[in-house]
Amino acid sequence: MTTAREHVGAGLLARVVLGIDGTEPSIAAARAVAPLVGAAGGEVIAVFVRHLPVLAEPSAGEAIAIVEETIDEMAEQARRDAEELFRGSGVSYEFVVREGDPGLGILAVAHEREATMVAIGATIHGPVAALLVASVADHLVHHCDLPLLIIRPDRAPA
Predict the structure, then answer these.
(1) What is the pLDDT, as a whole number, of residue 57?
(2) Predicted confidence band at 81 (pLDDT cuts at 50, 70, 90)?
(3) Residue 100 phi, psi dihedral angles, 5° rounding
(4) How many angstroms separate the CA atoms of 49 and 100, rounded?
(5) How far apart are CA 123 and CA 153, in angstroms?
(6) Which has the least CB within 10 A, 11, 39, 55, 60?
(7) What are phi and psi of 90, to 5 degrees?
C-alpha cells in the first residue's frame, strides 16, 4: 500500500524537465534527479537552450559564427552528459534542444510536454557577477508555475 506522501512524490516525479547545459551545477542536478525519477518510474526531458550571450553584438559576423560553433559544441556535450547520466539508470529520458532565452525555453518545453516538475542546477554568483549574468534559476523562481527543484552547489559564492 502506498502512502499519500509516496503518491504525491511519484506524481511530482512523473515527468521532470531538467535544464542541462554541461556545467557542474546542471550535472549535479541531473545526478540528483535521476535516482528520484527512477524510483518513481518517471521520465526526464533534458533541455539544452542555445542562446547568444547578452553582450554578443549581431553585427560581429565572424565572432558570432565562432560563438555559435561553441554553443553547438556545448549542446553536443550536454547531450553526451545526459546520455551518460541516464543510460543504464533505468530512467526514461529524452534530450531536447531549443533556441532563445534559457528560462523561457525550459518553461516552454515543460508546458508542451505537460511536465510535473522542473529541475535545474544553480550557480552561486558573487555580487558583481550577479549584476552581469542573468540567472536562469532566478527567472524560474519568479515565473515557473510548476514545482521547481533547484540544486545548489556545495560551495560559497566566489
Answers:
(1) 57
(2) very high
(3) 115, -155
(4) 7
(5) 7
(6) 55
(7) 85, 0
Domain residue extents for the chain: 15-151
Q: Residue 17's pLDDT band (boundaries 50, 70, 90)?
A: very high
- Distance between the two ends of the chain, CA-based, in angstroms? 47
Amino acid, single-letter form, for residue 108: A
| Protein fold of 15-151 | Rossmann fold (3.40.50)
Helix (H, G, I), strand (E, B) or coil at 129: helix
Identify whether the C-beta of residue 22 lies closer than 8 Å to the C-beta of residue 77: yes
Alpha helices in 13-61 (DSSP H): 24-40
pLDDT band at 65 (very low <50, low <70, confident <90, very high): confident
Q: What is residue 2's predicted lDDT score, i.e. its pLDDT?
A: 41
